[in-house]
Design goal:
24% strand; HPS3; alpha+beta; 1006 residues; 5-stranded mixed sheet; single chain
Amino acid sequence: MVQFYNLHPFGSQQIVPMKQEPELFCCGRDCVFVACAGACKIDVFVASRDVFEPFCSINTVGKVRQMRYSDVGDYLVAVEEKNQVTSLRAYVNWRCKSTGNSRTSVRLVGLMIENPLNGGPRDQMDIIEMPLSDSPLCVSCCPVRGDLLVGCKNKLVLFYLRHLSLNNELSALDFERSLNLHVVNVTPIQIAFCAGYVSLMMEFEVLVLKLLQSPKGAAKTTAPDANGLGQPHEEGLINQAPPSSPCPLDLDDFVICQRPMELFGEESRSSGISFTLESIGLAKEDVYIQIQYILYRSFSLDLSQVFSVEDTKLHSLQLLPMYRTGTSTSLEGSASSQNRELLSLFCFFSMPHVGYLYTIGNSADLISTYQYPERSQEAVVTPQFLHVITSNSLQCYTVRCSAAAARDEDPYIDTTLKTCPPVTLDICALRMQLFIGLKVLGRFQNHVILLTKAIDEDITERETPKRTFSRRAGSVKHKLPPETEPGWNLYVVNTVPTIQLYKEMVEYSRKYETIRTQSSIHLLSEAHLLVRAALMDPDLMESPEKEELLAAFRDSCGYLGDCYSRFNTKFSHLALPYYKMSQLSMSDILSRGNSIIGGGGEDYGKGFVFYLKHSLSEDLDEELSEELATKVLQILSTAEPVQLPHALCSASMKNVSPRIAMGYLQKLDTTHPSVVVTLAKASMALKMQDLSAYRIEMGRHTEMMMVYGFVIEPRLLMHRRNEEIISTELAVHLKETQTRLLVASMVALYENSKIVLQEADLFLKVFCEQYEDEDRTPQLLVDFWEALFVACPQEAVLQDLLFKLISHYICRITGRQPPDTKPLKTPEELINSCSHYGLIYPWITYMVSKELPNNDSSEELSKLQSLLCGPSLDIASVRPFLEPLQENNIAALSVHILCATRLGEYEKSINKLLDQCPEAVISYAIHELKDASQGLWWTKLLPELCNRIQHGGNENQILISALRETLSVVAMELDLKDFLNVLPEDGSATFFLPYLLHHNRKKSVT
């Protein structure tokens, strides 16, 4: 479907001053090449400030049948005919002709003149002749690499463009004949070549394929097809003559009408068109070339619309590249081919009444079909428009190339942050400009070139000739009366600037606003794509023009956001990404006028409510005024009242009147009560400093239900702004009055992935106003760690929490951090509720009981000892944390001995106990010296006690008591002989001999 709008894409027009009748032309980078009828020359006209002036003339060998210009290399290639012999020539360095220098060199392709002009400046034009075994019918230049493809009967010939350096100052262009593609019984009418993609068009068929290059050793491998799947290829690079083609039947008296067909990917092989590749180049002998089929389409003769076969043939084959945004496009020599990065590729071809536009990237897809109201003669597609000529009108249609390319550049473009009008958007016809006798069409930059040839009959009689049909193609010929002379003109129609046409489209769309149709959205989408295509032009540099385009792009996003906000369509959700791309603030959007936000609920479209909900759910660095915040409450109370408590939790609603908000919440509480509504009411009560109302609301639900409410809406406790987490008034009040609820809520937020551990740590530190002191850990944060530890987090977080807690406990024990509040959990509660906290060993309890600990650190000491006794700690990794603990008191000594014992250092632990706390040595030995370490009773402890008693000291009675216990254990565990062997030889234990003998007899009896 094509939608028609009476817009003005065409501006001024001028006539190119020519002395002879133009026969055909082609457009260059900044010029037009015109071949005149009956003359062997090409006139060149260059655009200077939108005025075309003669630049130079190029003499040709024969009459020009076809010519193409290549931006890469700045050369012109022409198919010329002289004495019924067709040849192919390339004109290089033709711009030097403008100086009046007629110096010209003629050479064969591949042959260079050594040291031309003795190293002087290059001021001559080169004509490169390209001999072919078959007559060239059509040519195409690759806009990306500058390579040349020549179409002959049953064959395509590929020439690579080469940039040769002759010496330090001189360089030249040449071509290398590289590849022949032989195809049986196919005569291309037109060909197109771009970045390895080849498209050829016959009378009723179009085939698109891609030449794939791979190392020669990988010749037998499979190549990806159009859908990325591996398929075997039969075509290969060979160095032999092609097989002879069978002699075709004489079909001059027949018209073959084949069945319409559309094939994609490897299915295109079944079209019956197959290729044989013949390598004829030398530079890339190590490269193996394969063919990947992309698209095949054939058409049948529509007898209801034609009066000759010529009027049904396909025309205007074109491959249109689009480049990745931001790639440089220096146009000096080959720089453009090196700097441009191909993003998307499109293929266009046309029947007389229908045009087809395909995207042919990884796969071929039909994106647009153009229905012409009249029979077309030629068409040219650009990233912004499709221009079509009929016999008497120039038509302009919009295209969807920028929409497809935007999705190729960003496959995730359709999100809540960004979007783009769809590729399937209806076609839009902008203008039909009347001309008389249109024949040829061309386009470059912002110029449309038209060749008109009119006779008197065209002007006076506009009737359609009678329809006749012949089986011979082109049998109908309109002969000019001998007394009439043809009238001709070469027109240059200047298209208006993108910004000017964009503004006209926006203005035109406003006539549809009141009736609320899709036409307003459609035309604004067209304007958006127009600007997007201009911004994707790689020739667009940083300039005021680009800034103006970017501003128009943002404006178009704002207008589209307005449309989707206002209309209740299935695409209303697009208001959100379009408003995001417009970079308008929420205040700007809320204040855009009554056409978007009216006075009643019926004025708020689904799209606007969708945008409002999502914007308020984000932590934007924007605060609405009290008036706009109240407006938000009015909108949501009408459209979606259940969103009111969530909206009030947004940082953007900070300035809302708490009394007005409480009124809306109380009304909602009667219809949709929930714990979130209750907590929101409590928050508003705090803002009003109504503590009585606050306590009433907080008493309506259990602690578990309130924790659930905070999980549903975390912004009741905190806001994120610029990577910073800010606490709310409700959170501050909970810290003072209900710390246990606050900690439980933070743990629940972590467990439900609403906050990560690092964010929670930072929030609680800032919350307790201790962020500046990096070494100080507030007790609230420790309570959170302990509560999270009890909840058994994942292993990765578990180790992190262990190190955090141990570091804190040690700081408290050493007195560096006195507690700011009382801990929520005692050591006994942690031991009973968490498997990571182990039972404290008896000998540790005995040691600590001998020394009265500091009351401020006794609980932290017990928690640390419990963790070290638990199963989760890797003691070796904990030891570096214990360096601040000096072994100058029993508490610190117990921690060090506990770590040494867990690491199997029993002898070292016994020595420390004997030195500093001998009272606990027996308790330690009874608990630890078991199994494999039991021998330490008589190999370590007994000799050490005897030795220390012998030397005497203040602790002699304690050591003697320990010795008795030790001897009791040793006597019970060893035989009499072994027992006597371990006794000291100096007789110091003889006093205990009767006692030991008694125990030995008792053991013998048992």
